[in-house]
Amino acid sequence: MTRLTSIVTKSVVALLLLLLGVSSFSAQDSASVRFVHVIPDAVPIDVYVNGTLTARNIAYSEATTYISVPAGDHVVTATAAGLQTALWEQAISVSGGSATTFIASNPASPQFDAFIDNVTTSNFGVARLAIVHAIAGGPDVGVALAEPIDLFGATQEEGTPLAPEISYGVKFGEFDVPSQNYVVDVAAVASGDVILDDVSLALTSNTSYMAVVYGTASNPRALLLSAATAPAEDTGFVRFVHGIVGGPAVDVIINDTLIIPAFTPETPTEHIALPEGEHEVVFVDAESGDELGDIEIEVEAGAAQTIAAYLEDGDIEINDFEDDITDVDETTAVATVLNTIDGATVTVESADGTTFADEIEVGDASDATANDPIVSELSFTLELGDDEATLNAGNTVFYGGTYYNIIVLDGSSFGAPSLFVIPTALARTLESAPGAGDVTLATTTTTDTSETTDTGDTSPEEETVAEEATAAPTQPVALPPPTEAPPEVITGEVALDPSANLNLRQFPSSDALVLAQAPSGASLIINGREGIPVALVEGQDPPPEAEDFVDPVTLLEDENADLDPSETWVNVTYNTPDGGSVIAWTLSQFLIITDDEGFVRLRDLETVAGNIPGETLNTDVTPPSEQEDLVTATVININSDANLNVRRNPDAASEVLAQLPLGTRVELLGLLPVESVLADADWAFISYAPDSGGVITGWVSTGFINYQLNGENESLEDLILLNLIEESTEDAIGQVTAGAAPVTVATPDPQVDAYVAEVILDADANLNLRRTPNVDSEVIVQIPSGTFLIVEARTADAEWLQVTFEGEVGWISSQFVSVTFNGAFIEDITEIPVDETIGN
User: Fold this and answer.
1) Would you state the torsion angle of the CA atoms of residues 800, 803, 805, 808, taken in this order, to the nearest 10 degrees?
2) How far, in whole angstroms, is CA 85 from its chain's centroid?
3) Which helix (H) or strand (E) covers residue 718, if one does?
4) Residues 732, 657 contacting (CB under 8 angstroms)
5) Shortest CA distance to 691 belongs to which of 604, 581, 584?
6) I want to staple 310 with a disulfide (CB 3.0 to 4.6 A). Which of 156, 243, 405, 553 is the partner?
7) pLDDT digit string, tens, across residues 8-39
8) 302 three-class SS
């Protein structure tokens, strides 16, 4: 491993205090600040310091890294991300050599509140913890151990208080504790009610933590901020990465001392300071205590490296990788990519054409790539044998003065492979943000901008003022959406993965046009749930479907039961960041619906006529465009408790990317022909946009879909004659974009362990589905030749089979079908169970 230098002077070590994101306490002319956005229901924000764009697109529950600023007074302005209208403006003051966290948490009076951080040098095996109460309007809270733990040689029992009582806007601590996992409860002091339980605080050695309790009284959350403590002389800097997705949580022990507890792929460490020299690093299963692997590392003063655990050929490997920080300066970002996906070759590129990694194998890291500060969409391509897939990792902001470890993590049954971008602020300043020199704001707050000279002879009184001073805000501008809903307003918080968006549709249907998308964490006003259709023009009669409408609440037998959120559409208002609004429909399963008193049942919502269309008002959201001919497919012929598998390849053994319930409509991209005959295709390549956001493409069996043209049922033959069906090839590989919900529940494949009947008739003939097993019975619907049907039962004489087609249950004659079970032809259909309720 190449090192920066073999001899590091004291001046270089002092510089590295800033390089690793903390203040150099010998450099009294500068300070370190970071900004945290935890204002409930507020849009992502940009932060300007003295009119210079400093931090971009800080979403709810996100924080910046430390930013170096001159000591003294500054004007801070917050705007909605991408806009330049001030949400609020305030003056701040920071003293030389200090580190300060500025937290915005109060929707009624938005401003950043200052909390001084202690990032002075800590001992090996020791972490530092402070706790901040940031729930505006919330009760005083106490924090206590939820599980016993050993602390300084004595057992601390469950219930032992860490912070007996904290009021809003107050920081409790800091205190130095052994680096281990502390599981805590947060409770309201007055009532004793636990508002957050079993919060895991996994504290790593040589790291300063600030645990922020934030959100609302009805929906509290916890955020654990971390920063490496200032290094001592003769130290190097090491980051640890757990790259085994689905593997156990890991404890990392260095020289027989627990350094990193309960380590997971989601919790990479900071670049922490370790003494120079050789160290024995052991990875241990945090639950069982079994040793998983070890490595001997050499730490050189001033050098940086990453230690990563990953799988290669199914075995655990632990290796070290150089982090070359030599090219980092305040206007240059540097990134390297580490591949931890077993058997895969990875390429990582950005939309602006930058290649961060080119076909690197598992356990390899790319060379460092230096870039100007940019905002760019990242994508990564995986090659697994003969398969190749490209996934979108979304927009990433690259700041100057920052070193980025980009970790390629494998997928799991709960999600697709992903990129984990981990920043280390080295020399980030006010000039380091993308566009910092292009966008400036005029400020109205007056501060003393005269040059500050630190004589090193500050009086005690002056020090106290500097440590305790908080910023005085100017009159704030109201945040969009409204910062405080009146008591009667019911709101729904979008509860998706941070990278996902919620589709807001024109009508309460998954087939309806998408008017806009609301980001995860956004607050929507709930207007009501879907109700009976009404006449849209005064004097006209209600539409015919109003006669058949049944309020689902009337079907609930238990008065304490609630409606199924996966089937209940709600009408919402989304106040957009540009000051407009969107009134639309969305499924309630993706919302946390509350009022001032807590959670609200769906059955208790007012109703809104289901035929009232959504609309966009005074916003730049692009309105729905006229749709060209669109060929879609709808899932049919499966039971209501089964799902149709969407597979990565046209193969029944291929990976399942999604599962589609009965009635789901998808876009038809093409068919895989059999001997170049599209009408005989066994597989269809489709695109599916779930309401939770994202897009999934993949292959489905044609036996379980029918076809539509612009929403109306159409035969496959006619679509082929109209040249509206494309021919797909086996080279088309299904993909899951970032933000699409993964397969989370294993549900039955309709063709596995089921009797499947294929209708065998002339190409233009149809088979009658009858209400009862009798040739004189009512014909419910006609089933085209070639259709596959799941057989539920038969009559005792085996003349009739019970099936479901397009949601209708009925009977078909057994003489016109071929029956298989798990792909094998069934000669004797008396194997099928008899419906004993039917006579012959």
Assistant:
1) 90
2) 28
3) helix 716-721
4) no
5) 584
6) 243
7) 222 333 334 444 434 333 356 899 999 999 99
8) coil
